[in-house]
Model the fold of this input.
Amino acid sequence: MTDGYNKRRVHLEGARKEALETSRSRLAVTSVLFAVAFAVISGRLVELAVFEDPQARATATASRTVVQSNSRADILDRNGILLATSVPTASVYANPRHLLDARDAARRIVTVLPEMNGEKLFRRLNPERTFVWIRRNITPNQQFAINALGLPGIYFRRTERRVYPHGSLTSHVVGTTDIDAKGLTGIERSFDGRLQDSEQALALSLDVRVQSVVRRALDTAIEKFSAVGGAGIVLDVTNGEVLALVSLPDFEPHFGGDVTAEARFNRVTKGVYEMGSTFKLFTTAMALDSQTIGLTGGFDATRPLRVARFVINDYHAKKRWLSVPEILVHSSNIGAAKMALAVGTKTQQAYLRALGLTRKAKLELPEVGVPLIPSPWRKISTMTISYGHGIAVSPLQMANGIAALVNGGILRDATLALGAPDAVPAGVQVIKTGTSIKMRKLMRLVVRRGTGKNAEVEGYLVGGKTGTADKPVAGGYADSRRVISSFVGAFPIDRPRYVVLAMVDEPKGTAETFGFATGGWVAAPVVREIVAALGPMMGVAPSREAERLPGPGDPLHIAAGKPRQTARNQRGRGQSVRGPARATN
Amino acid sequence: MRQTTLITLLSVGVMTVALFYLKHEVTTLEEELELLNKTIVSDQEAIHVLRAEWSHLNETGRLRELAEKYLTLEPVRPAQISTVPIPPPTTQEVR
Done:
């Protein structure tokens, strides 16, 4: 600001002055605009710096920490042991349009991946396409080697591979996924959406330790008796949680397609079988619960029962009047059939329906079998169903029904999802608590005095029932050597916590079992082995008190009979039996 | 006038240098962050794979074999479990 400048300004006249005035007013307008703009910016600055703006703070402090995303959730057992997880792998693909020489590229890739066929690969590299998978899930070494080939048009993509650290141990429950990590079978299928959407691991009610014990015990029995397969399940009767679910033969989940249908088949949930005498527990429970008969009542089992063209025989024939406990202990078909007749078809149907034996079981697996029930339900059906023939249910349904019989009469659907530690899911009262207590005593009696002696475990009170059912074949029943032997037990029977079911398919008798392949000889020892390991593992207190044997006069008294192994032979059994009324044990 | 220009020029210079350093520092930090993120992801993946391996190594059949081979321990039998009888309440507790 010099004086000369001011002086000159004053002396300006005319057109020059006018021009200057115009520019001066333009300057003023611009200045005002700029001033307003700066004021707004300053105001915003003050606002940001002085006043708290949570959103701005969040934007400023947001750390761009990238966590591993879009990976399929893990599957855990009840103790947090990893059963299924996804590990990152690389997959190699080609863009044939970018390839310089497809034949040469194929030839050179095969040098790194020798299991591939170069000619086939070349044919797949169709120049029309822009994306061709060459190989999924290659090893880091292979990735390095392919990279080192320096081929244009060959790229890698980060993919994930499903890994099952426990292999075949839980293959039927956990299931499998396809190459695009979509659930195909088992939990992988039924919880597919949940596993894809959430990163949160999915905890199952399964316990790998129990699973392992059951599998080993079953496997030993299958080997010993040259059986074709087996099924085992351990159920917590207080909440319906499945601790172990084993179907043998099983399969290695990593081998994808190279697994036989036989191994894939889930015998516990998908397979339905005529379970045999274990059904007598249901018959007895419904007879007691409907007050058709009391513990002191009984039926005459002197002679085989003839209905139309069928004859119902006893395997362990006593040829006399039998009380209700005796019918169970000696596993009398005649007695059970007469009991069912006394109960009546309508009541039998109602109880079986209430126990969930006539509908598909509810379990979080896609592989659940529909039970086969007779239609029409004739009088003969009522009779044969009383001892487990003419109706086919899955071992899961069987175990679930037995759980309701022993837990105070409340049916809860079996579940594979882990619930809160002390949560008791709602259930349906299907039999009276009093009936349930009677059933526990009867089941204990079968193990102490009857066909289930081989299930006795030192320290734990096991109750249960054996079953040996002839396998149905087209048009009738197989010869009596093809049987399904099972044992369903509950322990500790004075306050039941677990139901254990073991089933062995087509066992063959051995010298050690005097040629017998019945539930008492084959499946009961499996349950004994499972209970002996399961009890200490789950912290079930052994019972020390000496058990009193019911004396004469007690309805539970069983008159001492001939020792079990003498008075029978395999050949005599069921020779006069035709149709679905074959004898069971 | 000259004073204002000088001050303005000076502040422009200072601000440019300051902005340059700030920007440089942010870029460095961002690079560092990216590196850390990469490390985190690769560590996460490694942990993931190790967890799978750990679970595989703890496979029950394998553990049983190893235990049978190297340990003299065996599974607990029911007979080995005992319950401690609850002692009668002491006089203090009763009060």
